Amino acid sequence: MRTGEPLPSTGDVLALLGTGRWHWDTATGLVTVDGVAARLLGLPAEQATLTEAQVRSRLHPVDWNEITGVIRLAVAEGTLAEVRIRIMDDRGRVVRVVRSRSKPTFDPLRKAYLLTGTLQEVTDPTPGTPADRRTVTGDWRRSREAFLLDAGRALAEARSTQEVLRVVANLSMPGFSPDGLAVFGVAGDRLTIIGHHGQEPDADAEDAFSMPLDTAYPAAEVIRTGRAIYLSTPQQYQARYPLTWPLAERFGRHSWAFLPLIASGRTTGTWMAAFAHPVAFTPDERSVLTTVARMLAQALARAGTAETERALTDGLQRSMLPRIGPQRIPGMSLAARYIPTGGGLQVGGDWYDVIPLPHGRFALVVGDVQGHDVRAAGLMGQLRIALRAYASEGHRPDAVLSRASRFLYGINEADPYDPRFATCLYVEVDPAGGVLDFARAGHPEPAVRMPDTTVLTRQTAGGLPLGIDPDADYPTTRMALEPGETLLLCTDGLIETGGHDLDTGWQRLRRTLERHEGNLEELADALVQAVHGPSSHHTTGPLIDRREDDIALLLLSRRAEGRGAGAGTGLDAVRSSLRRTMLTVQQAEPERIAGARRQLRELLHDWGSADQVDSAVLLLSEVLTNVLVHTDAAALLEAEITDGPRGRRMRVQVTDAGADLPHLRTPGELASSGRGLLLIELLAHTWGVVPRGKGKSIWFELDESQTPPDDAGGAPSPRGPEDRAPREDRAPREDRERAEGRVTP
Question: Which of the following CATH numbers is that of domain 147-312: 3.30.428.10, 3.90.780.10, 3.40.250.10, 3.30.450.40?
Fold first, then answer.
């Protein structure tokens, strides 16, 4: 070109260099290319306006996806967008590789990207040589994709902040792994360090690191602006941040990348990756770092939320621990567990409590507020405090639950759009005599494990759940916890989890209670493990994810000190009680007769003769019914199994306040009554009636060793008068019974 001639146009120069021009507006979806760019795309060499679909059909699918990511990254960082693109022919074969460079901008009004750039063919070296770019590019992309998949999976599995930091520290990025990293956070208006790796030999250095956010420091600037900062050389770092350069100089690094940690559209911190070797931070490398930073920000946000929830859960659980120690319960042992459900805050409406009462007594409480959300947990806390206040005032169990029901009803009236009810079991315990007074509000029945591991579900009177009726009554039931027995109180989560109903759930718990040998703490763990697998005391150990409901349970055991088969003298030493139960049936509750029959069957669960069990249940039903029909008093059932030289013997005794003594009658065929004592005479091995002041006791006994003979058909038959020894042959037995305080009429 001669001196003074005008310069050629930019388009002519680019055409001479084999470089095409293009313009892309994502709002219209149109791409304008000149002749060179059209030729490089495999189209006729003339200017054209193409749709995005037409351009995309000429590019490798992986490269098209990479273009969109590089554009967003360049806009976020304010840098050029550079990417290598493979051009495909109509048969899907790669015909050439081109380099695209552009300066993208974003129009917030149109919500569109505007790009003007160049397109230039990349000369391929000889295949198989070290400079083969296609092979290098392919390997890089494959290794990058594999790395990002592994990093995403590892970060998604991290459950705490420290686990997230360990995962990031062990990441091996393809070709440019950092040897030092730090994660910075914000506390108020100051920059703090959350964690680091390879930056400071002193593990406590982050405790002393703090600087104002307006400091000329890369991590602080990233938080202020939300833009990444790349420093390829120490000279760039020193020139741009001379005041804080000494903080980085002593580590001897050559390149640094500071990337924003953005979660939910908010910059929460900065991730610094430091390199011991020079890094150019190409678009591919920046894309990898940006992707890791996004995954890191999400992982840290999840871990922070989980740690906050765990802290809240731990605090609520600690507030529910018993405040009474073993030294306050003479002669008794206590164990408790609370296992939260598997979702949300892992806190629901279940709770337990141990409340000290005057005169050495204490109360056990197990309850369940409807729901598993924050409101259920809040109501649980309020109800627990109210119950403690009412109990501490000295109210009896029925009054405590009545007041608690009125309290919860008032809360529901204040919030009628989300009313909640609660079930509760309240037990007042007198350790001196083992006397238990129960009041129950719609809660599962308690259970008792006897010294020989027999388990009985104790039938107790109950009322409506708390919060339904402000005037509800809660009758009390009194029973005694014998030495060696263990009382179980629990919420329905322990019973019904795993697809069980109340019946099958109790069967599962009964098997665990009967088979377990160990102390009370081990028994509590065994009950939880039967439902969920291993767990730690009172809380939050590693449970499997099949958690459908909260679990709260209390175990109370009365120690059997100084008792045993050899305790006592005389007949007490010959016959020791193996197991016993007591139950009261009031005139107004004949339905409890069915519960008494069930309780007697549970007591005789391992009896050798099924016919004797049926006979005992039939006789018990007759005696209890006679009390309710022929008297105006309540019936007290006492059933006991004893052991002696000839084997086990069951004794069933029903006591009432009626003055009339029963007597044998011979009813006619059409008579509707009068057969009760006749049945006892036929089926019991011995029986009797004992006057007791203003009342009487009717009792009968069956010996396990005296199995009824089979009839001609081979089936067992009840014992008739002909099978009995004559009355005079029973005199030695009557003498023994009189020695034991029993009188046979």
Answer: 3.30.450.40
